[in-house]
From TrEMBL, chain A:
Keywords: 2Fe-2S, Iron, Iron-sulfur, Metal-binding. Its cofactor is [2Fe-2S] cluster. This is Non-heme iron oxygenase ferredoxin subunit. InterPro entries: Rieske_2Fe-2S, Rieske_2Fe-2S_sf. Signal peptide: none annotated. Pfam families: Rieske. Transmembrane segments: none annotated.
From TrEMBL, chain B:
The lineage of its organism: Bacteria, Pseudomonadati, Pseudomonadota, Gammaproteobacteria, Oceanospirillales. It comes from the Bacteria. Signal peptide: none annotated. One of its GO terms (biological process) is 3-phenylpropionate catabolic process. It is an enzyme of class 1 (oxidoreductase). One of its GO terms (molecular function) is 3-phenylpropionate dioxygenase activity. Pfam families: Ring_hydroxyl_B. NCBIfam families: PRK10069.1. This is 3-phenylpropionate/cinnamic acid dioxygenase subunit beta. InterPro entries: NTF2-like_dom_sf, Rng_hydr_dOase-bsu. It comes from Nitrincola tapanii. Pathway: Aromatic compound metabolism. Its EC number is 1.14.12.19. Belongs to the bacterial ring-hydroxylating dioxygenase beta subunit family. Keywords: Aromatic hydrocarbons catabolism, Dioxygenase, Oxidoreductase.
UniProtKB/TrEMBL annotation, chain C:
Gene3D superfamilies: Naphthalene 1,2-dioxygenase Alpha Subunit, Chain A, domain 1, Rieske [2Fe-2S] iron-sulphur domain. It comes from the Bacteria. InterPro entries: RHO_NdoB-like_C (IPR043266), Rieske_2Fe-2S (IPR017941), Rieske_2Fe-2S_sf (IPR036922), Ring_hydroxy_dOase_asu_C_dom (IPR015879), Rng_hydr_dOase-A (IPR001663). Residues 52-146 form the Rieske domain. This is Aromatic ring-hydroxylating dioxygenase subunit alpha. The keyword Lyase does not apply. GO terms for molecular function: 2 iron, 2 sulfur cluster binding; dioxygenase activity; iron ion binding.
Amino acid sequence: MEKVYLCKTSELADNQVKKIDNATYGDIAVYNLGGQYYATADLCTHATASLAEGDIEDDMIVCPVHWGQFHIPTGKAQGFPCEIDLRTYPVEVVNDEIYALVDSNLIAKG
Amino acid sequence: MFTKTPDLPIASMEELFELSAFLHKEARLLDEERFEEWLEMLHEEIHYWMPGIENRRRENPLKEGFYDKDHMAYFDDRMRDLQRRVARFRQPSAWAENPATRNVHIISNVEAFIAPEADTYMVCSTFTSIRSRGLDEEYVIYGRRYDRIQRTEGGLKLLKRLILIPNATLSCKNINTFL
Amino acid sequence: MSNIIKTLDVTDALPNLKKVCNLDEGRISGEIFYSQEIYEQELEKVFARCWLFVAHESQLVKTGDYITTTMGEDEVIVVRQKNGSIKVFLNACPHRGNKVCFSESGSTRGFICNYHGWSFDTAGNLVGQHESGIYEASEFDKSKWGLKEVAQVDSYKGLVFATFDPEAPSLKEYLGPMTWYLDALFDNQEGGTEFVGGCIRSTYECNWKIAAENFVGDILHAGWTHDSAARAMLGGAVAKVSDFPESYSVNWNGHGYEFALDTVGNVAVLGESKLNRYVHTIKPSVAERLGEFRSNMIASVSSATIFPNFSFLPGQNTVRVWQPRGPNKIELFTWVVVNKSAPEEIKEMWRKGAMMTFSPTGVFEMDDGENWEYCTKTAKGKVTAKQDLFVGLGMDTLLEETPLPGNVYEGQLNEANSRAFYQYWFDLLNAKSWTEVPNRNKGKAEAE
């Protein structure tokens, strides 16, 4: 398990999502939902799209391209045309720094 | 097709017969241009409403889906308004009515229910209105009607009518009839 | 990457066009209402070049609010942008041309084509496709394939206009002094106007010019055509326009506004005394805002067309666009305009009043439709189409000494605006570029 630094809590306001470039594991989207932080893969599972450019609606991220939705805490695909779930990462907050815990054995390069 | 009709108790066979006869008579009076007698079939509190139909996406509906009570309508009339429309038909200078428009109103799919209001029925029907003018003009309008018909001392009276057509664009220039 | 539509190639004017009208002699011919060849020229030289009304700002309140309409026969989407501006796009996917927005209005994140899942944001950018990997493998450049954007969009007092032509003069220049008159309806109160909800669409088998010209300057027909409606609504005949002590026909660049100064003549036919009272109530504040003269125009006997196909009636507050659908067919879009600041009850009365008078079920419009259709249909006859039609009333009525802006003619029972409308139309059909359109304006370009 690798601890990947995402950003500082001060860089992510409530109800915001941010894309963190990561060449090794694929870009990661980090979310702040009411002070609770989540991390998922940033690339939509349907077509080429950065989810961080989408809108957060309650606890869903709406893909900016075809408006499919994923449940942020679980990564579950919820709306057409998204049918493949999104990878999620456990998040650890150390002081004011947000980390994703990435299982390097399971993840192919993104 | 449109608004979901509330579940109401079904009227009796006799009542259905009587209400169907009422609607058929109404259609005949209109075809025979007996507008004053037609007005007498209406309740003095009549609301005669035919909203404009708007072509909207399912996730972006209006208050009633394809229409909205605050939006534009073809008819949103009370008794005074209907009387004014009849008054125009009766003017010798109603140029577009001479030669006369020839009308056929076909009423079908009549269903009658007991409305929650006292002495009132909810009657659903479909209509086809065929008009011909001049030598070769023909206009057909069809749709669904949701009526409230009340039993009064003066007999059955039409209290409310909601007229819904499927068309977002009226395929003709006017509606110079009642539906 | 800009996806703005470039100037279209303009074809040569039709030969023998000059035979179809001579406005100096006060004549036109029915041919202009029925010829397919002339109609094709109109789509290119009038509708693809002029400023066309596309929306009222009140229809597009927040980001992503849109309506769909047409400019000529071209389908367009009018959509509010994140920065508050309004853009107009062709409602056609740049991949196979399929329509991308099928609803007439709503609020959206963008537009997704049903065919191959090309997805556009509200700014028209192509943001992705279904099977996006295939495009990436072909080194497809998304930035070049956004929705095609209409060259110019601008608004005046809530009225949004657009033109396909990057070379077209500015909206301000195009409207010229007509804005001074537009204010009488569209800016007579603080906060301006709004459209009440919805649009009624109907179909006439008539040429678009017949309808537009009726509003540009033909009050003459009202006393005769609308006798039955006036008697039904008012219990008496239409006001005798020739008895009015003062009235005018004003035009500019083919636009026209004809009006009396009786304040309430038009609103009165709605038969709602509360509306008449409302007009009288706001009149002093209108006088303060726009001056005494225009306060007499709020709802007076009047009508107007902004060339080519945007028309309205002050007082009845009906607004319409005559959308061309072939030489002998129009789709008529009808809206109701009200002052934003008006009480709800007043807005509601106008909504119903406009429907009752000037709409497909309006008692006035019934008799117009019949006339306009047969003005068009008679020209089906080859011989009939070649005969002269008279449009010569008020030939020498131009007022040289007047403080009023625009080309001002004495009296509203006058065909000066109709002639100016057809003249501008004729000039456009003969011009390959805007610089070839002769300036025939004689009056003041601005109010004194």
